[in-house]
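README: folding subset

This subset contains proteins for which both the sequence and a predicted structure token string are available. Records are stored as plain text. Below is the entry for ArsR/SmtB family transcription factor (254 residues), shown exactly as it appears on disk.
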Amino acid sequence: MADVSPRDETSVQGGHYTARMSRADIPNRYQLAEFGALLAEPARSAMLLVLLDGSARPAGELARVAGIGAATASAHLKRLLDGGLLAVHAQGRHRYYRLADDEVAAWLEAMALPRVPRLPRPQGSDPALCRARTCYRHLAGRLGVTLCDAWLGRGWLRSDGSGLHLATTGAQALAAAGIAEPLPEQLLRLAGRGCLDWTERRLHVGGPLGVAITGAMLDAGWLRRSQRSRALLPSDEGLRRLAQLGVRLDDASH
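--- output ---
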């Protein structure tokens, strides 16, 4: 399948995000139909969803998740690879499958969004997942969109035609709050993207910048991974440090 991943541009209007795609990035009807066909098979959807945490998994594990046999799983994985939704890493005799990139993850999360604003969150949503989680490898959920909104409002994030960028003042604030790895100067060279949040219906920071910020917060102990889901659990110290950076979860409650 031809590349159907959207490269969205972000802009700030009245203190809020808007997302748009150039016409060159919009899939044609045949690409969109093929993308839909790839997701229409429950087994393939199950494989894709379990990879939303950014992990790479062997075919046997993905087959068990999907509840299918090895031969059937192999056929489905080939379709997903050919369709550009998966990538594979060979290590010795083993092959590990992962999502092709964070734009595929953004599409998968966006597919769950209703096309009307401000509806209640989907019934049965895990409160911990809604509060903070990984979207592929970057921070999503209430914490993710609150961070994005707060840093835009402070001018620590700026938006242009190439995506989202951390301003020097933002890097300085991160350094003062205790983020050392990666060095804030390295964050200045990374581009991010606006990723539409599944539960919040607003944008969080995706792309390489979002991945690096999330990784730094995990390394600093501000966040830790749940053993049961994609949820990220903020530590007390993490909540204190985030509040220092203008990110307060209570301010984001609906």
